Amino acid sequence: MSSSLILAPSILSANFSCLGEQIEALEQAGADWIHVDVMDGHFVPNLSFGPFILPVIKKHTRLPVDVHLMVSNPDALIPAFLAGGAEQITIHVETCLHLYRTLQSIRAGGCKAGAALNPATPVESLQEVVHLLDLVLVLGNNPGFSGQRWLPEMAGKINRMAQFLERAGSSAIIQVDGGITAETLNDAWLAGARAFVSGSAIFGDPGGIANGIQSLRKQIVF
Ligand code: DX5
Ligand code: ZN
Are the C-beta atoms of 117 and 141 separated by less than 8 Å? Predict the structure, then answer.
């Protein structure tokens, strides 16, 4: 298991009137990835943005773009996100009729592949595809909105995921998304998460983006 902490701010919580500046501020403040929440108003009761957002982001940063597809038909959208230059694409296990093929298609497009699990979806649902995964995303709460409370029982699920990956001999990174703040990050880290998505805690920090990122980073004493 890696010992470094990866921070992936979610731009869903950004101020869209100055998105470019906000993205540049994330890179300057030491973010590692840019997390992009794609919602179709069907798999989740919210709408966000499509592949057009990638060139907008890439004009302002060279950080890897981490795409989180919360859509009912990911196969229809994956080609456009691959063409847009996403470095990583994560699909929800609950949306894939052919999970094996969908993960293969992401890797065949030269991109890292991730699988996301809603709070109710068991770790074992990845049993037959673990060798196709670069990343597993454990939702910290129900997907679809930023600013929701962390579900404390997800720390136990992250720990089960860490054991599951270890038994499978997998080096996939465990990412946690939803409710990550300075108060909740350490529990997820101790459970085995190494990549942390955070939206409202970073963009909503009264001290600004850099302060939001530092407040999260300093939760882990190496
Ligand atoms: C919604 C998204 C999350 C969300 C995180 O489910 O997948 O990435 O934007 O926002 P916070 O950190 O505010 O919970
Ligand atoms: Zn997300």
Answer: no
